[in-house]
Request: fold
Amino acid sequence: MDDRKQGLPPVAAADTRLLILGSLPGDRSLAASQYYAHPRNQFWDLVGEIIAVPLRPLPYAAKLDVLAQHRIGLWDVIAKGERRGSLDSAMRNVAANPLATFVQSLPALRAVAFNGRLAYSTGAAALAALQEVVLIPLPSSSPAHAVGIGSKRESWMALRPFLHDDIDR
Reply:
């Protein structure tokens, strides 16, 4: 029996322009079957600032609807893996998601952003051969990444142009 933690399905549509990839959801997110469910994770605050919509107070389904309206998709680089707790540094025996195939199925995609170091190191390697999208490393939105939200915000705001029509691919 495979007792590795299993990730969540992708949240994306054919018109997705920006795909944000994490590593593997933490225990709280997996238990809730919701991306970024930990109340101290800054993901919803950071993305809310990018799109100028306060996402944190919304119910989860409404958050996903707003992301879809702004053509933002979510997924993870790891499909399943062993991990005691929720820290990426504790990840072992992982199986990757089929990122290249998935990214190629999104015809409007302009950029793939990686939420944290493990997401970037794993995902960028899987997508290195694809030239049609921009790969963007980001500081983790996790509360374990003890950098102030102001510093994170500056990096995350680099995603904003990929959501508008006036940028070339």
